[in-house]
Design brief:
heterodimer, A: Ferritin, 0% strand, globular, B: alpha/beta, GMP Synthetase, Chain A, domain 3, 4-stranded mixed beta sheet, 7 strands, elongated
Chain lengths: 211, 158
């Protein structure tokens, strides 16, 4: 597996984790404050593990890869860049679509010939099972809400962009939708820059500090 | 000269940073110990990747091994940890400190989590319900006991 592919995974999980953490303290009710904070924590933990693998290949370290690249060098899917507070329907739509896409990607990684990648995918899959259950519970609750349907329609081309072309038919099957033109990874949206500004602020304030 | 047995004993004295009633050995995160002269290799499988306790655990193990007069080599293994690895002793300690031990074998389904038998660690009633899949740390869910009206933390089955 190439360092570029590892960075795609790491960037997706880091940015989604960051976006999820934006609900801490302001989710619709206390249980979701806890849930989204916990999901954010595990996603960022996964990002760190992928960055560490990529760093070995690139001769770098996880923090530099996470925080020191130029905006154009990030390889995340636009789906995870979007700022969605305070729209709960869109947030849940993204959560459900992302977890479905991520499950397909993890299945492929479980069979990787690289032992470290397969081992990490196995660990991550155990944790993601809880994210998937949480997303499934919410999808069941919101499925018939018009606002949720609109959000799913809007985000569908972005969700396809999380996966490689050959994996996309599996996502169509999983969520029972037809394939459309995907919005590809690497095409950054406006939300990325302010997010990076905020995310790297502390690190930029004291370059080279160890925390 | 340090022996593997001495190392296991030393590691069994290290409390889990977040649930101190439990030792790292009870938790099942120590996979193997190999002694080679004055070098001690420990294979370690952390519970959750995002767990902030990971570094603390690693450092504490190294410190104990240095305390035995040996050189530590704590390796984080790529194989995953599962809650199935928590020992019987660990399960008893969890229960006695108010945490419901993991229920059933991993991986669980949502149906099992919602409808399976999850006894309350306070009163023993099985009339409990899932309140939140997520809790104060990545390894715990929140349940509520309808019998003694007490929320409690359930160690996740992973």
């Amino acid at each position: 597996m190439s360092a570029q592919e590892l960075l795609q995974l790491a960037d997706d999980e880091l940015f989604l984790g960051w976006r999820n953490s934006e609900w801490t303290g302001i989710a619709p009710f206390l249980e979701e404050d806890v849930a989204f904070s916990s999901i954010a924590q595990t996603e960022i933990g996964h990002a760190r593990a992928w960055y560490e693998l990529a760093a070995k290949e690139l001769g770098s370290d996880a923090d530099s890869l996470a925080f020191d690249r130029d905006p154009d060098e990030y390889l995340c899917a636009p789906l995870v860049e979007m700022r969605m507070v305070d729209d709960w329907a869109r947030t849940i739509a993204r959560h459900w679509l992302y977890e479905n896409a991520d499950a397909i990607r993890i299945q492929v990684l479980l069979n990787s010939t690289n032992r470290e990648v397969a081992g990490l995918a196995e660990k991550i899959d155990r944790e993601e099972a809880y994210h998937r259950m949480h997303a499934a519970m919410w999808e069941e609750r919101l499925r018939d809400e018009p606002k949720f349907g609109v959000a799913i329609d809007e985000l569908w081309p972005y969700a396809l962009g999380v996966l490689s072309e050959e994996q996309r038919p599996l996502l169509c099957q999983a969520v029972d939708r037809d394939e459309v033109q995907a919005i590809e990874r690497g095409l950054h949206i406006e939300d990325l820059r302010p997010l990076l500004e905020e995310m790297t602020m502390v690190r930029r304030s004291v370059p080279g500090a160890s925390w | 000269m340090v022996t593997a047995e001495r190392v296991w004993e030393a590691l069994a004295e290290i409390p889990d940073p977040e649930i101190p009633a439990l030792s790292l050995v009870d938790l099942g995160v120590v996979r193997d110990v190999e002694v080679d002269g004055d070098r001690v290799h420990v294979g370690f499988t952390p519970t959750f990747l995002g767990c902030p306790a990971l570094e603390v655990m690693r450092e504490q193990m190294a410190e104990r091994i240095r305390g035995l007069g040996a050189k530590p080599d704590v390796e984080v293994l790529s194989e995953g940890w599962s809650s199935d690895r928590i020992t019987d002793e660990g399960r008893r300690k969890l229960h006695d400190s108010g945490f419901a031990p993991p229920s059933g074998k991993a991986p669980p389904t949502l149906l099992q989590i919602q409808t399976g038998t999850h006894p309350c660690p306070y009163c023993g009633s099985t009339d409990t319900r899932l309140d939140n899949l997520f809790g104060p740390t990545p390894c715990r869910s929140i349940r509520y006991c309808n019998a003694c009206r007490q929320p409690f933390e359930q160690f996740k089955t992973v």
